[in-house]
Amino acid sequence: MVEETQGFLSDHYDPRSRTLRLSPDVARRPSVASVGVAAHEAGHALQHAKGYVPLQLRSEMVPAVQFGSWLGPIIIIGGIFLEMFMQASGLGMAVAWFGVAVYALVALFSVITLPVELDASSRAKQLLYQYNIVDKQELAGVSSVLNAAAWTYVVAAIAALLELARWIFILTARRD
């Protein structure tokens, strides 16, 4: 099923309801960028239909990541405060390291997202050209849009890994 959703850059495929949701700009504007975005989201639907394992894994991780992204740092900071002010004889640091493990799920999710997004874009480009939806010149425009979008996922993965490394550094530095 395809339906319009509100918002800017809100385009996505929902594997639970098997629904492709497109923002008004993508759904209503005939442009190379819109075609590329819609085809990319259709690529996710094809991944789902084919049982693409990284998509399945990412989908299973969503609930944990929704909590881990904001709860992990709170647990870490809470553990540090517990150790500092309550002199919890290691309990606070154990709590903080548990928070790091929770946040590590966010970093893992970002890394797993990379092949999912790159594969969806690859499928999109192939199908658009194969079925003559775009010509070679338009395909170059689609590729530019999808490649730019892919870089946002690369940057997000790097940022999540650096944030994880920062928390690990903070906790290991506290032992000295």
Give a description of the structure.
- The protein has 176 residues and is mainly α.
- The protein is built from 5 helices and 3 strands.
- The protein has helices at 24-28, 32-50, 53-86, 91-130, 136-174, and strands at residues 2-4, 12-14, 19-22.
- It has a 3-stranded mixed sheet.
- Helix 3 (53-86) runs antiparallel to helix 4.
- The longest helix has 40 residues, at 91-130.
Topology overview:
Layout: E1 2-4, E2 12-14, E3 19-22, H1 24-28, H2 32-50, H3 53-86, H4 91-130, H5 136-174
Parallel strand pairs: 1-3
Antiparallel strand pairs: 2-3
Helix pairs in contact: 2-4, 2-5, 3-4, 4-5
Please outline the major beta sheet.
3 strands, mixed
Report the helical percentage: over 70%
- Which structural class do the helices and strands define? mainly alpha
Mean pLDDT metric = 91
Order of strands in the sheet with the most strands?
1-3-2
Distance between the termini: 57 Å
Gyration radius, to the nearest Å?
A: 20 Å
Strand content: 5-15%
Strand runs, count = 3
Along the chain, the helix and strand elements come as: EEEHHHHH
